[in-house]
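Ticket #4471: structure output looks truncated?

Reporter: J.K.
Steps to reproduce: submitted the chain below (318 residues) through the standard prediction queue, then opened the result file.
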Amino acid sequence: MNTLGLSTLFRMGCLCVRESVDINGVKYTVKDRLGEGGFSCVDLVEQSSTKKKYALKRITCHSIDDQKLANEEISYYKKLKHANIITLIDSCIKGSADLVVQTTSEAYLLLPFYKRGTLHDYLVLKSCTKNYLNVREILRLFSDICEAVRYLHHFSPEPIAHRDLKTANVCLTENMEPVIMDLGSCAPAKVQVCGIQEAQRLQDIAAERCSMTYRAPELFHVESFCVIDQRTDIWSIGCILYALLYFKSPYDIVYERGDSVNLAVISGNIPFPEETPFPMELHNLILSILKVNVTERPFIEGVIESLTNLKRKMEFAV
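Returned output as attached by the reporter:
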């Protein structure tokens, strides 16, 4: 009787070997790949003993600097405690990154798994049938996102900016509550830029970490002598609010046309559909947030105040 080689069995699917990961003595089995980027990926994993599912973010570190950034991300997860910000369940770093000897390490961040996926996923489904969210739902979701942002912007001892707020970085719980995730772009909210080199460095970081269609104008061309503050996030949540109405950021639409997002952002022109089911007050709220001149853009308190006034005007509970 002929026998098949091991490699043949794998190709034929006769064997199914699941990768397992050990995090601080607890074993998890990798079930599926949920997403991936340049230097990280997110897997669906299952704890072997309880069968409970989690999301596992894995960051490949090629240098000591990469490993430092991974540790900083873990640090942000550990110290931020808010109902609308994702919770870190466990973490560890395995291996040692060194460019000289060409070794890498891997950071493991164990996070909750949200079956509903992200706000981006939800809006894509809605857009397929032009099934607009109702105003009450829009204001509820946006209010919760704003509260999480307020928590970040008032964090002590130093305010924090997320720097990559977008619908794809907002998970949805079973009860449709928004939860901000991906804290890898978080940084001190206020940055004093002194000189061309510092400006270029910040601009390069923004280009790498901040999604273009949600990126604030001042991060596209960082001035040589300026102060960048938490109002970069305000621009981003303005784009999120637009997406809650029309499924995408206004600059996603520009990007998909193949036009320059940079030019569209600095133009200050926000395109609204001619036919809309929404009251003009919502458009006006978006316009009050998406101010190209950062000095005209409100801080989070101003956004929440405008939102509260709009709720009162539309006879919704505060």
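Triage note (M.O.): checked the attachment and the full token line is present. The two ends are 76 Å apart (CA to CA).
Status: closed, working as intended.
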